[in-house]
Amino acid sequence: MELEPRRGHLQTMAKITFSIFIIVPTIGLSLAADTLDMYQSISYGKTLVSSDQIFELGFFTPGNSNMSYLGIWYKFSPERVVWVANRNNSIAHPKGVLTFSNVGNLVVLNQWKGVVWSSNSSRVLSNPIARLLNSGNLVLWDNSGSSSDEAYLWQSFDYPSDTLLAGMKLGLNLKTGLKWHLTAWKSMDDPSPGNYVSGLNSSQVLPQYELVQVDVPSIKFRTGEWNGVQFVGDSFTPNRATLPTFVCNETEISFMFEVQNSQFFSIMTLNYSGVLQVLLMNRSRSTTWNVMYEFPIDPCDSYGKCGANAICSLSLCKCVKGFMPKSPDEWTVLNFSSGCKRTIPTNCSKGEGFLEIKKVKLPDLLEVTMNKSMSLKECKDECLKNCSCTAYANSDIRAGGRGCLMWFADLIDMRVFEEQNYGQTLYIRLSGSELGMHTYAN
Fold first, then answer.
1. Could you state, in order of their start, the residue ranges of all structural domains in the chain?
2. Which residues contact residue 183 at a Cβ distance below 8 angstroms, ignoring those fewer than 6 apart?
3. pTM of the entire structure?
4. Which of 68, 93, 205, 380 has its CA at 20 to 30 Å from residue 249's CA atom?
């Protein structure tokens, strides 16, 4: 599912309709095992448990539902389901079975022995093995070969549900085309794909994290772009519990996090109402999940709340200096969607320059160019020479700042932060008569 709501290409997972010859073994599974082989199966009430006793896999029935699903949850917190296999194809409780097909795929069967979910490995496995790892990753490989990560023929981490675990990725595998994103449950009792999707928008010059409402479709919330240290405006920064990382190379564009302290558990989850939360548990003290971060959390998080060329600050909208409301009557009744227009148009005349705005979430990357090697001074000069350039900023804040982003249209979805480490500095083109000492810096 590509996170590109502007073009309306959001898709849902297709239901599995194929049939395949299945051998259902009669040998049961001993409790607390973490491995399933071709002679074993799991039915309702039987589970796999990771060797560190943290994660458990089996069939569950959510909330008030009477349907069953194969899932993974925390053994000490069974209500915290982190992955679901047959999201699109529920099973009448308690009839499901997890086993292997005759070509070595993991499959979930319903009460009529029909396949409602499959791992769909592209290879025929002669001796398939599935294991629930301590990371919460369910992996499949052929026991005739190596069990290293490179040899996994399928893994649940490649198919996230509504939860991101430590070590799991969001983004795009550039070699395979596989996209990693979170999809909310439809409701508290229904894990089928709901109305919200979140992940990296990798179609722009720099990736940024977006939360998209599928049924509209529209962006509900976005961070700014990755600036070499973090996503601009994202409070999910390195701390003593978690370490977020970003990868952008010829193989993949991805975001993930690791837990730095073994005393903590941390997850990112997208709930059915479209709220993205980062949860943390101090395992040495309690089994309570605490909310570290939450998005969206205030009116300024709403995408494009203030319209074009306006800035949201402390839940209020105001036009950038040198701009005025397009529709003053609408702004009077607190409808800011029409945004702002220039008071004095720019036309590349002598004296034009730039307004500096500090601690800002940079505008959405809709009509931009990027040069990774330019200095900020070179970026300014290049923008000034191009009459269509409306704003510029560093693309990377490391080592004092480097790289050049230039905007060539209206500036959408900006906000100012009180905290310096959340935002960046943006330079907006103004006519000479509008320039002065004014700044939005707090």
1. 1-157, 160-297, 299-434
2. 1, 160, 161, 162, 193, 194, 196, 197, 270
3. 0.87
4. 380
